[in-house]
Amino acid sequence: MREYSCVHRGRSEPLDLHLGMFLPTLLNQASPEQMETFFIPAWNLEIIGTYAQTEMGHGTHLRGLETTATYDPATQEFVMNSPTITSIKWWPGGLGKTSNYAIVLAQLHTQGKCHGLQAFIVPLRSMNTHIPLPGVVVGDIGPKFGFDEVDNGYLKLENVRIPRDHMLMKYAKVEADGTYVKPPSAKLTYGTMVFIRSMIVGEAGHALAKSCTIAIRYSSVRHQSEIRPGEAEPQIMDYQTQQYKLFPLLATAYAYKFVGQYMNQVYHRITGDISQGDFSELPELHALSAGLKAFTTWTASAGIEVCRMACGGHGYSRCSALPDIYVTFVPTCTYEGENTVMMLQTARFLIKSYRQASAGHQLSGIVSYLNESERRLQPQSVSSRPTVVNVNDLASLVEAYKLRAAKLVEMAAKSIQQELQKRVSQEDAWNNSAIDLVRASDAHCHYVVVKLFAAKLGEIGDTGLHSVLSTLALLYALQGIQQHSGDFLQTGLLSVPQLSQVSQRLKELLAQLRPNAVALVDAFDYRDEMLNSVLGRYDGNVYEHMFEWARRSPLNKTEVHESYHKYLKPLQANL
Amino acid sequence: MREYSCVHRGRSEPLDLHLGMFLPTLLNQASPEQMETFFIPAWNLEIIGTYAQTEMGHGTHLRGLETTATYDPATQEFVMNSPTITSIKWWPGGLGKTSNYAIVLAQLHTQGKCHGLQAFIVPLRSMNTHIPLPGVVVGDIGPKFGFDEVDNGYLKLENVRIPRDHMLMKYAKVEADGTYVKPPSAKLTYGTMVFIRSMIVGEAGHALAKSCTIAIRYSSVRHQSEIRPGEAEPQIMDYQTQQYKLFPLLATAYAYKFVGQYMNQVYHRITGDISQGDFSELPELHALSAGLKAFTTWTASAGIEVCRMACGGHGYSRCSALPDIYVTFVPTCTYEGENTVMMLQTARFLIKSYRQASAGHQLSGIVSYLNESERRLQPQSVSSRPTVVNVNDLASLVEAYKLRAAKLVEMAAKSIQQELQKRVSQEDAWNNSAIDLVRASDAHCHYVVVKLFAAKLGEIGDTGLHSVLSTLALLYALQGIQQHSGDFLQTGLLSVPQLSQVSQRLKELLAQLRPNAVALVDAFDYRDEMLNSVLGRYDGNVYEHMFEWARRSPLNKTEVHESYHKYLKPLQANL
To answer: What positions does the domain Acyl-CoA oxidase C-alpha1 occupy (chains A, B) (predicted)?
Structure first.
């Protein structure tokens, strides 16, 4: 099974959901009998399935889903319905034209009671003719931003009856008489979400690394304008502005790759604990994966566009590969949990932790910086305490990021407190502080990334490698400070003269990285076939191959295009 | 003639360049005899032309263009050549398959000397058969990010001979014996650039206004999650985070529309002056239009994507219209002068002005804030001078933006100075300060936008209208301060407690704008046919129409798609 399908590595295709969701869901949630019935036909592509969760009117808020599965004990069947227009299943990949089955998430009703969401195996199309079955209204949802090859679909169910054993029954069950049997633990479904979100973090590093490879290689091939009059046009990589666009993104790509690796390791470690019944680390990992998913996908998406535009006009050509990298990656900001909702989930954990610490509870793990004792050590303002940050020392910068996060979590908690004093409800106080909460989560995630980048350096023995990666890590940390300089000044962590030092140091680091830039993207080791980019070719023969690529354009099949005979000539004749 | 073609309002099409560039260039640069020969056939679409400037290896830096036109007095012809692969003309719209003529920019060589770029009318395809003429290698450059309907093309010229009177000769001339006659003024070509760039600024307002209309209307239709448990799912417009995404962009859209109007007025006023031989205001306008073009297109492009993603999953569907708005607008960041290059052009003017002021020269116009006398009044740091900004008063905020710009121009100038002290050349000192220079230009443009928004309020008599637009203007100014809080703290223009006030005030303004949000986008007055967005429908009947739109998807023409018979069925049969 190809794990890549979960996160759309490379080009996406109609079978992605079958391989990435349908088969794994069977593996995780089907009973042994169900495995026997469905798995081999699905493995052999007789059954081609998709995973139908999102509805036209309902996305990230799963409890709002409206599709119903009502148990009829008389026939021992579930009656599946889409009761409203907003309940029509919308977006599942491969649903429109390819799949003949779907796993459908629906509200289970039995014995007059609703038991919430369950997963059901629903046949959609005839196994012989591929024609939709009675009561199944299914089709393609139309053109999208990218993903041209995937038939994302809609599904309206009108009294579709499926046998009782088509509900996935490894955990929850409905007995023949309609009795509902609860699953042993609700936390089990957390695992998959955490896994997919940590995969997406790695994917953010991957997409950004590919984009940087293309933009940095091309910037070393492209010559333009002049720095010194009369001299040859320099490589555009020699412009400070170009370096300032691309090198921090290069550092970010390395950072996210390291964070992705870390999350994967933690996930597997914790999965071991969970299988032994220890759920203690799950809330922290769940919160971290939500925030980091949002933090990394937002930055990477914007970064891909910066890389694309750093290639000038040719970045708009699909021969650069950058338009495709963007449209394929940017949906990660929305799927598997909309980013702002994710940030607020992380904030919920941070505020909860902050309150526990304020109540005297000693926190452990990544949020231990919220402990009262540590917070008392923080500077309160420029005047009250001298700053101690050394802008040339990565460990000192990690500390500054940590204190910034602590301060912003505190500010968000205080905002909620102030709202509550206006006698609004807890929920309104939360909503009225949402900007601060997102900002706090962002600072928390930023701290985690800088910390993990610094930690990674400790694992590197080779001196040369350690040196260049240290430069990258320092660049990453300092550029984040420059971008969020208001935070660091406001919280008294940096002084105004230090901020000037940061700017100066950043420029030095750019110049320092310049000779290693191409080697640093070569080190990502993307073969030309993987990049599929004329601009990002390893051999640098960009222009010859761009001409060759253009000549193969579909419009060039004939010297005179049919539009001339169909439109232009008649138009000219009429004048 | 449809002026919209210059800036791609709405959908683009193969004849855009003919209408937007070929005909206007004839009008501006053809001699009376040339007008007689070419204009009527072009007007009647017998001649379909494009404008071929950019080459595969050369974009914004025009002097680098390589195409040659060498005059041969023996036959009184120009011999046109593309001497290298990088000299192949690349990107002109309609060049690939549609046009039978092009205006080609080429280096003029005559009597053994190069006289720089001139424009030549070059026939490309037979008027009878549309087959490319001998020596003309022409075709489509292949798929792009958007612009599917336009055949952007390439053009390689191999000893193509055109008569002497095919060089556009309203200004510069080549006489029969090959004598080159200079044009009367080089500044005349400035005008068109300034005009197009100011059009683009208005277009940034337009694209953002459309995007806000869609996102804000849809956010009032879409219900999701819960703020208060047990209550119905609220409109997503009620979430503070959603307001924080969209309302500042709404304010920005209004701001850019006003700035666009202003620039258009100034352009026409100055054009009057120019026709009377007064070029004095042109450098300022030229510098302003370059910077504002970059400033507004960057923000608007990023803003369109924020609007798109604020619509959740459905923002990815082309039925939202947002993907098309993005891919159609984002090229403005690159064409008509690459944005970073534009910012550096503005910086060149700012630094020149700063140096003049430092030398005792009294500046007038928009850069008068750089005068020595004014600069002496500026606060130097938090300690040396109390801050005077009133965060509730727009005039006071305009002042703060002005002082920030002054300070950042000064910092950039000092950076150059410091570099020069290291004994590097002027050019290297400039390049080594480029980050600071772009930052200074950005601050200058931001000041201009805030100032013009505030000035616009003065023109509004209606009290209700004045009140809501004042709220928008305040939101625009305060959000800019929050985003660049580091600058305002660093330059001592704001104190830390004032920054907290800014955050608090911003939240209040969001809540205050909430009831008027839909009215404020309705006021842009885009008819449904112009928006062409299911999500942005005026009547709010989003879901029904989305279903209808999807059912018309090309893939839904048949219940069973041909791919089933072609691929799936054989695949299943083989297993």
So the answer is: 190-351
